[in-house]
Amino acid sequence: MQLDAEVESLVPGRSFDRRGFMKTALGSAFAAAVLPVSAQTVHTDFNGLTAGEVNVPAGDFKMPAYRAQPEGKTKLPVVIVISEIFGVHEYIADICRRFAKLGYLAIAPELFVRQGDPRAYGTVQETVANVVSKVPDSQVAGDIDATITWAKENGGDAARIGMTGFCWGGRQVWLSAERNPGIRAAVAWYGPLKGNPNPLQPVSPVDLVDDLKAPVLGLYGAKDTVITEDVRDTMKSALEKSKNPKAHASRIIVYPNSGHAFHADYRPSYIKADAEDGWKKCLAWFKDHGVV
Questions:
Q1: Which residues of the chain carry a pLDDT beneath 50?
Q2: Where are the alpha helices (DSSP H) in the chain?
Q3: Is residue 167 flagged as an active site residue?
Q4: Fewest CB within a 10 Å sphere: which of 59, 136, 143, 147?
Q5: Model's pTM, two decimal places?
Q6: 277 assigned to active site
Q7: What is the rounded distance in angstroms from the CA atom of residue 33 to the CA atom of residue 141?
C-alpha cells in the first residue's frame, strides 16, 4: 500500500502494518498502551540462552511465539507463558528468559495474532475493543495445544509441562488446567474467575473446577477491583467442595497490599515484595508438582 511505502521511506529496514504501525519482532518492545514503562522494569539478559521468535504450526496457520531456553540443551522442563491483554511484548519475553535462566524451555504464543496486534494500540480500551474481545476461547485452546506440541518436539520434556499466565492469560491458565491432561501444574496470576457467558467465552474457570486435570496456584491481590473478594471466595469454596483431588490440591493466595497486575514490573501497579514472593511460590509449585 502507498501508506506502507511512505512510512517505510522514513524508517528504512523496518516493516509496517496497513495502519502505519511499526512492526517489531515479537517480544522486542513494550505495548504502546503501557508506555512509558517504569524505572523498576526488570531486564533479563540473553547470556547462555537461545531466545527469540519462532513459528508454531497451528493447523494451516503459523503462529508466532517467543521461545527462550538454555543453549544446546534438550529434555527440558517446559513452561507455557500466557500473556496479558497486551500480547507477547517485552515483559512476557523477559518472563520467558527468567524461566530459561532456571533451566526451562519457556514459550509464549501470540494468541491474539489472528485478530490483530495488541501491542499497536495506545489505550487499554482500544486494545480490548479491537483485538482481545474478538478472540474465542476455542481458538486459544487449539493454539495452546499446538504450542505444547511444538515444545515437545523442540527440546521439551513431554512429561514435565507447566503453565503460567497473567490477567487475561491467568484465566486461560485455569481453563487449560481444566481441559488439558498434559499439564502437570499451573500458576495463574490474577486471572479472572467469573464472567458473563457469551459465544466466544461460554464458560468461566469457576464453572469447571470438577474438571481440573492439574493443580492450580492462583495469586491475587486483595485490592484488586476487578477480581474482588466475593469472586475469590466463590472460587475457594468451589475448590474446597469439589470431589476432584486436583481441585483440593489447588490453592488461592491473596496479597493484602496488592491490587491487580502486582507482578507487572513495568507498570505503576507493581508491588516488588509481593511480586518476588509470588515468583518464589510459582517456582516452588512447579517443583512440588513434578515440572522440575
A1: 1-22
A2: 2-10, 90-101, 124-130, 137-153, 168-179, 229-241, 245-249, 272-288
A3: yes
A4: 59
A5: 0.92
A6: no
A7: 26
